[in-house]
Task: structure prediction
Amino acid sequence: MLNVGQIEEGFVLDHIPAGKAMSIYYHLGLDKFDGCVAIIKNARSGKLVKKDILKVECDINALDLDVLAVIDHTITVNVVKDGVIVEKKTLVLPKEIKGVMKCKNPRCITSIEQELPHIFYLADSDKEIYRCKYCDEKNSEKM
Ligand SMILES: [Zn+2]
Result:
C-alpha cells in the first residue's frame, strides 16, 4: 500500500474548510501535476467540526501560495523537508493576482481582447474583495 502519510519534501495543507480540497486541487493545477498528491476529506478536527487536508509531494518552490491565499487564507501551510515539518507559513492576501479569477463584465476589455491576462487587485483586505484591474468589476467567482 502506498504510504501517503509520509512525504519527503512538499506541503501539508491543513485546516482546509471541509469540501474545499477539490477546489484547491484544481486551482493549484494539481490535476496536471504528476507527483504524489493525497486528499483527505472530512477529517475530524478540534477547531473546526470537519476539515480537509491536502498533501503534496513536490519541490517546495513549485506551489503558488498566492492562489491558496485567495481561496482561503486561514489554511495552515506546513512545509515539509526530509520528512519533517520545517516551517509553517502564514498566508497573506496578495495585492494583485493574475490568471486566477476571470472578469465577468461583458464590456470589459478582457472579454474583447481574449489574449489579455485577467488581473485583479485587492480592493478591500478586510472583506477580501478583489476587483478587475481594467474595469473595476468585483470578482464574483466562488473560489
Ligand atoms: Zn474587467
